[in-house]
Amino acid sequence: MMDIKKRILEGDRLALAKLITMAENNRPEATEVIKEMYYRTGNAYLIGITGLPGAGKSTLTAKLAKAYSKMGKKIGIVACDPTSPYTGGAILGDRIRMQELFTDPNIFIRSMGSRGHLGGLSKGTRAAIRAMDIFGMDYIFIETVGVGQSEVEIAGTADTTVMVLAPGLGDDIQAMKAGIMEIGDIFVVNKADREGAEKTSREIEAMLDLNERSSWRPRVILTVAQDNKGIEDVLYAIDEHMRYLKDSGIFDNKRRENIKNELLELLTQNIMAEIMSGLSKEDLMGIVDKVAKRELDPYSASTDIIKQTRIGGCR
Fold this sequence. Notes:
Strand 2, helix 5 and strand 3 form a beta-alpha-beta unit. Helix 2 crosses helix 3, helix 2 packs antiparallel against helix 6 and helix 4 crosses helix 9. The protein has two domains: 208 residues, 3-Layer(aba) Sandwich (Rossmann fold); 51 residues, no CATH class. It is of the alpha/beta class. It has 13 helices and seven strands.
């Protein structure tokens, strides 16, 4: 592990890729490296890119990353793609859509399958972010799978969340009223050369008028990312939101809240691992059968399972 740490400090991108792969595969060596180099984290600014499928998230991310690269910034991109619940495979389409970035020495892209993880992010997303932060990235983009309401998890990870919409996607604005609209710090109406872009923009503005709980008023920006139109406006809005967070003192509080979310997620994973390590498949299926036959209720079953482990013995 000393070798991979040394190579990462030297800026070896292959070492970074290897560390992320190990973390995604739950290799304990990756955890040890991240633990030992954790002191190097906290410097990258995290930008979440989310929204409905087909809105152009990948194109927008690519154009923003390219613009930051031209400024001499180091950029990391974690692009989460959906995993098939049947084959376990992921399309990893962002590797195709972001081809133009692969030759840029300032940009590192990692596509990750969601592996059944809800919330729009991959299970290995946080570890990948830590690895890129350790590597010295200035900005890290986290692009979600784009599946609707479950995208809310991005708000517990990113510093600035960009919600990407496009005209002609049906009743997208109305469908997003139930909470997902609240996570956007910046709204981008992409593919603005299409009919209905101005109408979509007005609908977003009208909905934002109803939200008086925050001192930050999200900007609504029209873009045609494919043609680089509006990209400068999005860059300005990201910088504006970053300055707002830091000047208001919200930035540190938000980072602390995000760390709390990460700790709770790790606790959940560790507790589940501990429980499952003390429960054989036969025992589990035996309990499942009892619940299925109505001989046992699921609430009592879950309590019994916990009692059978070391966790249940810690009183």
